[in-house]
């Protein structure tokens, strides 16, 4: 396996650690990290349920964290790794913060805006485009989501089970 792929997988595993934190909090397990100069400068995981904030997506939190680290809003030359294909809001945040590269794991057939439903990140009508690569540890990233929703459905079934 080549070094570049190993590097991408290394950072995606860090994003997966963030997703596991989200799951432990009862959040949908999506995690993200922002990497610049071979260092993580921002981390985030979903916190929508905990905060009651619709914008508390992993990517937005990771971008905010990276901007705080750099003390500026431009994330040029940075890469964002996220376990699930970004939604429209997160794709917009990546464009506005000038993220150079976006790597994601699992595709999102219901909300993915990095190639599935549309690709906002490479649309040349915007003043910035991100390079996008899909499928980094896609099976593992997808498994995090699948197992979370399977457990959630089982809990709901047991909760609604009539007593005998």
From TrEMBL:
Family affiliation: Belongs to the cytidine and deoxycytidylate deaminase family. ADAT2 subfamily.
Gene3D superfamilies to which the protein is assigned, alphabetical: Cytidine Deaminase, domain 2
Span of domain CMP/dCMP-type deaminase: 6-124
Needed co-factor(s): Zn(2+)
GO MF annotation, one: zinc ion binding
Highest taxon of source: Bacteria
GO biological process: tRNA wobble adenosine to inosine editing
Swiss-Prot/TrEMBL keywords: Hydrolase, Metal-binding, tRNA processing, Zinc
Positions annotated to bind Zn(2+): 57, 87, 90
NCBIfam families per the UniProt record, alphabetical: PRK10860.1
CDD domains in the cross-refs: nucleoside_deaminase (cd01285)
Coiled-coil regions listed: none
Note describing how the cofactor binds: Binds 1 zinc ion per subunit.
Enzyme class: hydrolase
Name recorded for this polypeptide: tRNA-specific adenosine deaminase
Active site: 59
Organism: Isobaculum melis
Pfam families named among the record's database cross-references: MafB19-deam
Cross-referenced PROSITE patterns: CYT_DCMP_DEAMINASES_1, CYT_DCMP_DEAMINASES_2
InterPro entries per the UniProt record, alphabetical: APOBEC/CMP_deaminase_Zn-bd, CMP_dCMP_dom, Cytidine_deaminase-like, MafB19-deam, tRNA_aden_deaminase
Subunit architecture: Homodimer.
E.C. no: 3.5.4.33
Catalysed reaction equations from the record: adenosine(34) in tRNA + H2O + H(+) = inosine(34) in tRNA + NH4(+)
Record's function text: Catalyzes the deamination of adenosine to inosine at the wobble position 34 of tRNA(Arg2).
């Amino acid at each position: 396996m080549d070094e570049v792929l190993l590097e991408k997988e290394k950072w995606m595993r860090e994003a997966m650690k963030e997703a596991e934190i989200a799951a432990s909090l009862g959040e949908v397990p999506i995690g993200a990290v922002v990497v610049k100069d071979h260092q993580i400068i921002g981390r985030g995981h979903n916190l929508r349920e905990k905060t009651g904030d619709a914008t508390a997506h992993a990517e937005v939190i990771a971008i905010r964290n990276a901007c705080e680290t750099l003390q500026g809003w431009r994330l040029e030359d940075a890469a964002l790794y996220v376990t699930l294909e970004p939604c429209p809001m997160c794709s917009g945040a990546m464009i506005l913060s000038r993220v150079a590269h976006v790597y994601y794991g699992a595709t999102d057939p219901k909300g993915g805006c990095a190639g599935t439903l549309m690709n906002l990140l490479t649309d040349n009508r915007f003043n910035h485009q991100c390079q996008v690569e899909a499928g980094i540890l896609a099976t593992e990233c997808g498994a995090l989501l699948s197992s979370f929703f399977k457990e959630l459905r089982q809990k709901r079934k047991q909760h609604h089970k009539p007593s005998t």
